[in-house]
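Our example pasted here:


***
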Amino acid sequence: LVRTSEFRVFTQAIEAGGRIRGFAVPGGADVARRGLDEYVDLARAAGASGLVWFQFAGEGPLDGLTSADVKSPAARFFTPEQAAGLGDALGASRGDLLLIAAGPDALTSKVLDVLRRTVAEQRGLADASTLAFLFVTQFPAFEWDADEEKWSAVHHLFTSPFTDDLGILESDPGSVRSHAYDIVCNGQEIGSGSIRIHSREVQLAVLRTLGLSLDEAKLKFGHMLEAFSYGAPPHGGIAPGIDRTVALFAGERDIREVIAFPKTKSAGDPMTGAPAPVSNRQLRDVHILLSPDAEEALADQRAGDSRAGSPA
């Protein structure tokens, strides 16, 4: 739909292997420019270089849309028919708003997630009393690390790939699916798990895909590879996030509200006062030698605690 447009933001994203994705906000034509700028800022904070929006004036279907009915900073790059096509693709009508992101799925998924949750809360589009569950399956097994210029495991390097995809494991890692899964409620992950690799040959192939030689694989994971050579049954599991689940059911935004002894955002424990200074003997017992800077910081902390405990 957008390949024929003159909007380079979209066409360049497609040429780079990305996609154009978005959603419609019912009645969103009433969002003021300040609100639209806030959405753009949210998108940028989530990693996007920007956000494209369209507003359609009037009521009813998008048939007969004119240039005067379309409001968007990108409107000059689209004919009214193309703008209407975007709206139709996202299920919009006149009076609605489109929020559109461009780029690889990993980026646009993150950006659109933040925007969907924000819009839903602002406009009362999500019923807080409803618990909507779903399983996310068939995660990609690998993603390309541009900084390291190599493939990395999306879940972890012991996650079993789909048997049907073993033939492309080393030739096309980006298309390999993994037996990883999440359980999600109201857009929040509350459990995650996977089926593990139990074959020595498959594990070695995964390690090769991640750039490890046979010698490196044996050095780092030799115990596991040896165990697999004796035979291992298929195995897997899932780990629920109990604190997050309880917070969700209780309608709390912060899991610290449902934790018995929560830590502060600086990782301090208000009940026990941890972390606290340690003695030189304790450091010797665990064979830890502090750097000069750490010694100085520890001395300052001890002095501060001593002053705090002195009577006025």
User: Anything to note?
Assistant: Residues 8-122 form a domain with the Gyrase A; domain 2 fold (CATH 3.30.1360.30). The CA atoms of residues 300 and 306 lie 10 Å apart.
